[in-house]
Amino acid sequence: MGSSLPSGAAESLQNAFDVTSTLQTPLPVSVFLTGYILGPLVFAPMSEFYGRQIVFLTSFALYTIFMLGCTFAPNWPAFLVFRFFMGCGAAAPQTVSGGLFADLYADLVPRGRAMTLLGLTSNVGPLIGPILSGFTSEQDWRWQFYVALILVGVNWPLLLVVPAALIREETFQPAIKARSTAQSKNPLIRAFTSSNIKSVYPGLHLSLSQTLLRPLHLLSEPLVFFTDLFILYQYIIFFLYFDVYPIVFKGQSQCLKHTKSKILTPKAGTYNLPDGESALMFLPTAVGAVIAIFIFLWWDHYHSRAVRQGKTWSKREEYRRLPLACLGGPLFALSQFWLGWTARPDIHWIIPALSGIPLGIGIDLTFLALQNYLTDAYGLYSASALASSVITRNVLAAVLLPTASIPLYRNLGTDWACTLLGCLCLLLTPIPFAFISWGPKLRAKSQFCQSLANSGHA
User: Fold this and answer.
1) Is the N or C terminus of the chain more exposed, i.e. has fewer CB atoms within 10 Å?
2) Each residue of 81-92: pLDDT tens digit?
3) Which helix H or strand E contains 448, and what residues bound it?
């Protein structure tokens, strides 16, 4: 939710800080996503060095402190700096949670369901942010952060008490085993004596520096690279919509009243809705995300039944997750064409708004399928594998959002801009089909997958 929070009340925020440049409009979101680049580089490898608990607590503390900073930011540069560090703190759940679920669930069925719920919160949360800010901060931009701070305060007791009460303080097995030894007075250093590391990571000589570089190393593996490529494209469009929807649904008269430049072309549809009501246009995408959860659970049940019946196709690991991504890609592309060719003043606003349903289904099925696939394939290394995905997509998102969102729709219009994005999405849809065909060979050639298989942690 924190990533997209300012987008629902952009006008009051810009008025308060006297922002007049159209290129600076997406910056509160894009600098937050820039924090997603640095955060995974630190938090994901550290969770595979010191354990999951300390990473979650540290990252959430960072998120809380800098959200408070955003609330009382004295000027625009300070606000953007605080947003960057908020993004750094928010990155841990995006990457470490996959490793946490790999720790907790050896059985891939409950692990997949846990990842499904995580995916729902990750994709629905950004849709709630603009609605919250649109209704609370139309006059005073700080109210969106007041409400968000209340939610943060509610979450702190849950983070501190619930894990210790329901499971244990730490879930990462190497850290648990090593902390029980008496080879060092320091419980953190104790976790990583030479003999301990070799028993968990055979064939790998780990140091802290090598651990921190692991997400970048994993990018060289085809499974991770092409997964990242498919996800990052949908991810960029997903966050692009937080700038596009105000153009489509709020209209020229209510977008960036400070600027004298013409933002909309006659091709761009506009419905002149106020902040709160235009933010509600994200609800169909949330509905699509919920529908995707039911599709995922149905497929999970169908696949489990096929396994019990001994059907040959179900024994291949790729069929556990990837067919959902094969469905998600075309649906996501469909949403682009739908929005582009129905967002016109002579068509009721509900029609383009409903394009959010296939958008939500498509992006959730793709995220859930591919992130579960990486988690299953990389096991103990899944936090780093997911971190590489988070890093790559946010590098491009941070660059493209402020430079391409408004210019793209201003120059091409809503119809052709969406058509271009939809066609590019179609070009990427064969990726999960290719994984189904060649995934076993790619995993067999992976140093990390084979290391896990040899150690019994696969």
Assistant:
1) C
2) 999 999 988 888
3) helix 447-455
